[in-house]
From TrEMBL:
Species: Luedemannella flava
Record Gene3D superfamilies: 2,3-Dihydroxybiphenyl 1,2-Dioxygenase, domain 1
InterPro entries xref list: Anthracycline_SecMetBiosynth, Glyas_Bleomycin-R_OHBP_Dase, Glyas_Fos-R_dOase_dom, VOC_core
PROSITE patterns in alphabetical order: VOC (PS51819)
Domain VOC: 2-118
Name of the protein described by the UniProt record: VOC domain-containing protein
The organism's place on the tree of life at top rank: Bacteria
Amino acid sequence: MALRVITVGVHDMDAAITFYTKLLGFDVRDASMAPHFVELESEGPTLLLAQCEQPAVSTYPAGATIALDVDTDDAAAALERFRAAGADLVHDTLQDSPVGPYFGVRDPSGNVIEMVQFD
């Protein structure tokens, strides 16, 4: 088995593209199927934004969810950048974990992203 594609449902494709490119730093690889699908550049599995009708409703971190963990060299600087952009922060401060400091943020559709400074 191999994980090849991660599909992220988004209810506002334009806002999602802005979030994933401007705040997270991904580039658009293929927008030929927009607004239904937009593929982002990723060193790992293909990251695919897929148009859906409604935003996600997540109770993260209390409830079960799938979170996208994105590597960052400086979690503190990333947190300040997201804060300055008015992003929907799950954590106001860095959180400790066995793999390194992190914080959670929601994309414009409510999907959870964890920005992790892996040790």
